Amino acid sequence: MVLIDGGSGSGKSTLAEALVGILDRRPGAPWQLVHDDFYPGWAGLSAAWRMVPEKILADHDAGYRPWDWAAKAPGDRRELDPRAAILVECCGALTPVSAAMATTRIWCEADPRTRRRRALDRDGEMFAPYWQMWAVQEELHWLRHRPRTLADIVVG
Fold first, then answer.
1. Could you give the 3-state DSSP secondary structure of residue 152?
2. What is the Cα–Cα distance from 149 to 58, expressed in whole angstroms?
3. DSSP for 61-74?
4. How many of the other CB atoms lie within 10 Å of CB of 25?
5. What integer best gives the mean pLDDT of the chain?
6. What InterPro entries does the entry give (predicted)?
7. Contact criterion met (CB below 8 Å) for 46 and 92
């Protein structure tokens, strides 16, 4: 069980895709990759603090409902196999509770300018009006949970 946390645009998704690509070449079941598609809207980062340990990493009935950004509502439930290997990447993935459940904890970092440029290049006009609101939520997570200190590996 691998958790990757970091600010928006820090390289979490890129690292997660690369790791799963490598790990899937090893014998055994394919890795399940969960991106940050379960936040309930732009004000929903704090939901990750509970959802990762309670819903995504659960021993039974693991799964979540991806957020439909166009409909502004949760989509159909995505089931996860609690017996299979899983990698979760999102801001909010690393808290003391979720870190205790993981085998590997990774923190991604980049300077604020680089993160903003990457995030806006990736998500464009959809993200631009919400950047500051999202940044405040990220900082709250960092102050409350200190995810960088929970990481085994820091990439940046």
1. coil
2. 23
3. S-EE--EETTTTEE
4. 7
5. 94
6. P-loop_NTPase
7. yes
State the greatest distance between any 2 C-alpha atoms of the chain, in Å, as a whole number: 44
Residue 29 pLDDT > 80, yes or no? no
In sequence order, what are the residues at sequence separation of 6 or more whose Cβ sits closer than 8 angstroms to the Cβ of residue 49? 92, 95, 141, 145
What are 47-98's pLDDT values in tens digits? 999 999 999 999 999 999 999 987 889 999 999 998 899 999 999 999 999 9
Query: Rounded to an integer, what distance in angstroms lies between the CA atom of residue 144 and that of residue 74?
Result: 26
pLDDT one-digit tens code per residue, 124-153: 778 899 999 999 999 999 999 999 999 999
Q: What pLDDT, on a 0 to 100 scale, did the predictor assign at position 124?
A: 78
CA-atom Rg of the chain in angstroms: 15
Both structure tokens of 37: 């598609």
Helix (H, G, I), strand (E, B) or coil at 38: coil
Cα gap 80→64, rounded to integer Å: 8
Q: Closest Cα partner for 90 from 33, 156, 139? A: 33
Q: Which CATH class is domain 2-155?
A: alpha beta
Q: How confident is the model at residue 24 (pLDDT cuts 50, 70, 90)?
A: confident
Question: 């997570």: which residue's tokens?
Answer: 141
